[in-house]
Write a structure and sequence with these properties.
Blueprint lengths: L29 H4 L5 H9 L3 H7 L29 E5 L4 H12 L6 E5 L7 H7 L7 E4 L2 E4 L1 H11 L10 H26 L6 H14 L14 H20 L9 H10 L3 H4 L5 H12 L3
Parallel strand pairs: 1-2
Antiparallel strand pairs: 1-3, 3-4
Bound molecules: glutathione.
GO molecular function: glutathione transferase activity
Protein name: GST N-terminal domain-containing protein
Organism: Setaria italica (Foxtail millet)
Length: 297
Amino acid sequence: MNSLAFPRCCPSPLTPASTSSPVTSYAPSSASIKIRRSRRAAHRIAVQKPTRIVAMAATAPPSSVKEVLPSPLTSASEPPPLFDGTTRLYVAYHCPYAQRAWIARNYKGLQDKIKIVAIDLADRPSWYKEKVYPENKVPSLEHNNQVKGESLDLVKYIDSNFEGPSLLPDDPAKQQFAEELLAYTDAFNKALYSSILSKEDVSEESVAALDKIEEALGKFNDCPFFLGQFSLVDIAYVPFIERFQIFYSNIKNYDITKGRPNLQKFIEEVNKIDAYTQTKQDPQLLLEHTKKRLGIA
Ligand SMILES: N[C@@H](CCC(=O)N[C@@H](CS)C(=O)NCC(=O)O)C(=O)O
């Protein structure tokens, strides 16, 4: 099923999307996730160029061409020429749901087939709701004169309707486990966000949710991913695991990988996949954005 010339179990550090010429990739180690710093260091960073914070997080060796992404469209922007036969994935760069569909597009090597259109959700163009996606959320996919939404549906849709390596193994047992894990994503996110919103210590509910993921990652112990090979389940979870690692470290002083070797390995290995790392945003910006959205000081 996976047509690539690397071992079926583990991903190549190069995805199909990334086999051209070298440029900087972006894969923080667990050490770079910790954003909290002394006042003096914070001041130093504040007076330096904004790129400094991104550079701090970059530890991976150069590996692939970084796609040049378009600026987000705002209320002042004209719509693209809608329904002209172009396939468009509407995203917001900081949105974990949009990130799922974006990773799927990248992993399948569809950069030339599916155009990224970024929307500024804080200053949303009115045509997005009126002409593109009445739900007025991202992600959405314009394809074959139709617009579809819901990130997990889109990941499956992209997998089924476009070429590129399959995101689901053939093994029925793994497929069934995939459905169970996909059905659990919202509950996992809810359990993890609950502790971030609370002033108390990390709750038992959050710990149990993390332990459940740790156990799930150990089910097929032929590889560090949920189903052995990289799949749509990894795509469903990784944008949120990325954020929870940042938020828990900085807001709760809690390392989600401590005592969870499978999760630690998952994070290490997924950060070798360009299709994912190319969708990552500056951890500092993600943290600030979420604190603001959740009203956390
Ligand atoms: N269930 C949806 C959730 C999408 C979603 O909530 N996206 C957020 C951005 S992260 C959004 O568009 N929010 C805009 C709004 O709610 O007005 C999915 O999985 O695609």
